[in-house]
Amino acid sequence: MEENTNSSSNPSSIPPQPSTSPPSPPKKSKLIYLLVGFIILFILTVSSVAGVYIYKASRVKPTPTPLAQTPTPTVDPTASWKTYKSPNGFSLNYPTAWEENKDAIQMGNPHAEITLVKSPASKVSTGLLVSLFDNPNGQSLQGFINFHKTVGVYPNLDASHYVKNSSSLGISGEWLIDRNAPGAQAYHSVLIASGKNVIAIDCPTALCNDQLFDQILSTFQFTN
Questions:
Q1: pTM (predicted TM-score)
Q2: Using CA atoms, how far apart are residues 208 and 179, in angstroms rounded to an integer?
Q3: Count of other CB atoms within 10 angstroms of residue 189
Q4: Contacts made by residues 85-89, CB under 8 angstroms, sequence distance 24+
């Protein structure tokens, strides 16, 4: 029998073995991983900064709002004073320690209406004197002063001493004040126009200082 020389001379063929190396991942997958990692890192950074800010803000004490101060009410020193009501249509208040004394009216002054004197008896010979003068022609106060000085009815009046007072004492109409009228003793004097009359209010400076005199004048009012 003839031998098959071809089979002995050709080595038996071996099938190829598959490669065991893992395939390389695509480049796009690496970029995605990097991007995700960056986003996570960014979020962590922002969260940390926000957390620190919130923590510090929570520790800051709010500034307390100052309480509104209630203004102290102004006490009227004349509220408890006595009131003199004139039959000639005006009134004024005077200190509670004073008294009305018609017998203390200055001698020789036919125009005197009332004197308010300090009680107990003051060393001052006279108190606050309220007088009423006729002014039938309705002259201005300056004209009234000049007339009575000329005729000698009220010789101590001096128009150059009386001035308009700029302070707000509540007296309506025309009025003039002399802070240091001449006479036997220095005194404050006010003239107030009242229709066809002139009201005079005089008080020795030894009894009425500027403040007290202004307080008395601030209570003056017409009653009709």
A1: 0.61
A2: 11
A3: 24
A4: 85/223, 86/113, 86/114, 86/130, 86/132, 86/223, 88/113, 88/132, 88/194, 88/197, 88/199, 89/194, 89/222, 89/223, 89/224
Backbone angles phi, psi at 105, to 5 degrees: -60, 140
- Bridge partners (DSSP) of residue 82 are 94
Tokens of 20: 């065991």
pLDDT digit string, tens, across residues 20-74:
555 555 556 777 777 777 788 888 887 877 777 777 777 766 677 777 788 787 8
Q: Classify 142 as helix, strand or coil.
A: helix
What is the residue whose two structure tokens read 């009575």? 148
194: phi then psi, degrees, rounded to nearest 5:
-140, 80
**Digit-coded pLDDT (tens) for 198-220:** 898 988 888 888 899 989 988 99
